[in-house]
């Protein structure tokens, strides 16, 4: 059945607010698989595009073969919490006043004290104070989908509210149950303790995957939105199996132990995705479920396969914000590789259009449904901004980081307060310390090596002006000049 068949989806595309939700509601389910810190070219289907495969990822590759694989897709931030805020709200994270990572309440108190100012006394700028909780007035996609008649579920990482009692512990006031998710499974504790035994030949069971499968096997009388939010492939690594380690060391003899462990984690999360996709097929839900796969930001500079992109998580070069993204729905969406400039901010309006409902407030992305169905394209002048008004790494680690942000240098570098804008094929990065900027033509310079700001000064100035206009309209917080 075609997605545009009016007998099933007529009310969906009319976006009629009076559309009745019958018990046999056939609108598509949505399963969003969100990986933590997966580098742009870590999946082999992406690495193969540039001739440098990290590991085999057959399950991710299989998903890509059944859907649209985006090569120019972006997260909304180069760091976890802020990026998840963008994903969940469909708005620039700056609108919620969240540009960094959440933490414990006591850490925020310390940042707001005189100790906070002292921490940055040797730097030129004072970053904004930490914001730990996604404000309750910031509506999430789960809240809108619940109102549209969807069952909403999350398994795994939340990370947009202060840690409750333990790292990644869900807030009792700002947790997913308070933000529109009707079914929840917090599985961080089991992930944090998960190791193979030294003689184990196989990967251990993953509670997050098991809970997600448990949800899929429930009776579903109405469509669902399942957010599978992985802790993989984030550090720390805990592989102990000698058999698994030996197998990877034999394949990658020149890699150090941490790189080996990271490669195993990429292989492992692909294995769990395979289990999830098998369960989707086993339950018969695969025919009517849109599957979205992506990562929250660029990969860790010391381990991930970010090539050919410059930079990594924590900064606004392409390696920090360009991410793998696949959308699969074979019965209605096109398959293939798309070079269109898209964003995770576009997922919210896309899913809402599929649900036949309107978002409850304006969003910063735009629906990709036309592109996915072959009935539209992304505007050539599509514009997006990113905002990271902080220094990184934190504390003393900043002084041991290298100064230059390179391409696949396997080193943590100094990130200084910066913002960026992409408009069509051009991208500008603005640095707050010295008020300088760099301009790149991404259609010719994916690795951001040829700064055009002096050759194209008028374009650079106009893009910087537009960047500041958007940031100010979003009530963005800026670093304070001393």
Present the secondary structure layout.
Elements: H1 6-14, E1 29-35, H2 44-47, H3 58-65, E2 68-74, H4 80-89, H5 105-112, H6 114-119, E3 125-126, H7 141-147, E4 151-156, E5 183-185, H8 188-193, H9 207-216, E6 224-229, H10 242-251, H11 257-282, E7 289-295, H12 318-321, E8 322-328, E9 336-338, E10 342-343, H13 347-354, H14 369-373, E11 383-388, H15 397-400, E12 418-423, E13 426-431, E14 436-441, H16 457-473, E15 480-481
Detailed description of the structure:
This protein folds into two domains: 24-379, Alkaline Phosphatase, subunit A (3-Layer(aba) Sandwich), CATH 3.40.720; 386-481, Arylsulfatase, C-terminal domain (2-Layer Sandwich). It is globular. It is α/β, with parallel strands linked by helices. Strands 1, 2, 4, 5, 6, 7, 8, 9 and 10 form a nine-stranded mixed beta sheet that branches. Strands 11-12-13-14 form a four-stranded antiparallel beta sheet, covered by helices on one side. The chain has 16 helices and 15 strands.
Task: Tally the structural domains.
Answer: 2
- Under CATH, the homologous superfamily of the largest domain reads Alkaline Phosphatase, subunit A
Can you tell me the CATH class of the largest domain? Alpha Beta
The amount of beta strand, in percent, is 15-25%
Q: Please name the CATH architecture of the largest domain.
A: 3-Layer(aba) Sandwich
The share of residues in helices is: 25-40%
What oligomeric state do these chains adopt? single chain
- Kindly state the number of beta strands: 15
Largest sheet features: 9 strands, mixed
Low-confidence stretches: 1-24
Broad shape: globular
Radius of gyration: 22 Å
Given the structure, what is the number of helices? 16
In CATH terms, what is the fold-level topology of the largest domain?
Alkaline Phosphatase, subunit A
User: What distance separates the N and C termini?
Assistant: 62 Å
Q: Which secondary-structure class do the elements indicate? A: alpha/beta
Mean pLDDT rating: 91
């Amino acid at each position: 059945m075609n997605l545009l068949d009016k007998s099933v989806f007529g009310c969906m595309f009319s976006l009629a607010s009076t559309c009745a939700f019958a018990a046999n509601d056939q609108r598509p389910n949505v399963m969003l698989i969100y990986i933590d810190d997966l580098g742009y070219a870590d999946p082999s289907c992406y690495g193969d595009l540039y001739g440098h495969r990290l590991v085999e990822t057959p399950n991710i590759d299989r998903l890509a073969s059944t859907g649209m694989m985006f090569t120019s897709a972006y997260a909304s931030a180069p760091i976890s919490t802020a990026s998840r805020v963008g994903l969940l709200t469909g708005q620039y994270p700056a609108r919620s006043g969240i540009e960094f990572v959440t933490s414990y309440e006591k850490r925020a108190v310390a940042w707001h004290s005189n100790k906070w100012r002292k921490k940055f006394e040797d730097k030129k700028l004072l970053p904004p104070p930490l914001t730990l909780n996604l404000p309750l007035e910031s509506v999430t996609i789960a809240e809108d989908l619940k109102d549209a008649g969807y069952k909403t579920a999350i398994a795994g990482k939340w990370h947009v509210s202060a840690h409750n009692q333990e790292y990644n512990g869900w807030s009792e006031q700002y947790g997913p149950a308070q933000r529109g998710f009707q079914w929840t499974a917090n599985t961080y504790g089991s992930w944090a303790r998960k190791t193979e035994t030294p003689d184990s030949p196989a990967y251990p069971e993953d509670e997050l995957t098991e809970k997600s499968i448990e949800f899929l096997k429930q009776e579903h009388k109405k469509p669902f939105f399942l957010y599978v939010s992985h802790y993989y492939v984030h550090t720390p690594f805990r592989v102990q199996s000698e058999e698994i380690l030996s197998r990877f060391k034999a394949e990658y003899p020149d890699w150090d132990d941490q790189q080996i462990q990271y490669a195993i984690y990429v292989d492992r999360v692909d294995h769990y995705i395979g289990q999830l996709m098998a369960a989707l097929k086993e339950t018969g839900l695969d025919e009517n479920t849109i599957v979205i796969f992506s990562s929250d930001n660029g990969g860790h500079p010391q381990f991930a396969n970010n090539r050919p992109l410059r930079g990594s998580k924590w900064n606004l070069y392409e390696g920090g914000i360009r991410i793998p993204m696949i959308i699969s729905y074979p019965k209605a969406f096109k398959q293939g590789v798309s070079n269109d400039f898209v964003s995770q901010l576009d997922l919210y309006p896309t899913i809402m259009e599929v649900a036949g409902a309107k978002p409850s407030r304006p969003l910063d992305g735009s629906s990709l449904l036309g592109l996915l169905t072959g009935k539209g394209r992304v505007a050539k002048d599509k514009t997006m901004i990113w905002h990271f008004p902080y220094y990184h790494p934190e504390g003393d680690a900043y002084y041991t980081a290298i100064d230059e942000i390179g391409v696949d240098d396997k080193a943590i570098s100094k990130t200084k307060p910066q913002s960026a804008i992409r408009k069509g094929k051009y991208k500008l990065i603005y640095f707050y310390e010295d008020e300088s900027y760099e301009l790149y033509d991404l259609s010719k310079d994916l690795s951001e090596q040829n700064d055009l700001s002096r050759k194209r000064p008028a374009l650079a100035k106009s893009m910087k002006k537009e960047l500041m206009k958007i940031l100010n309209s979003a009530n963005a917080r800026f670093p304070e000049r001393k």
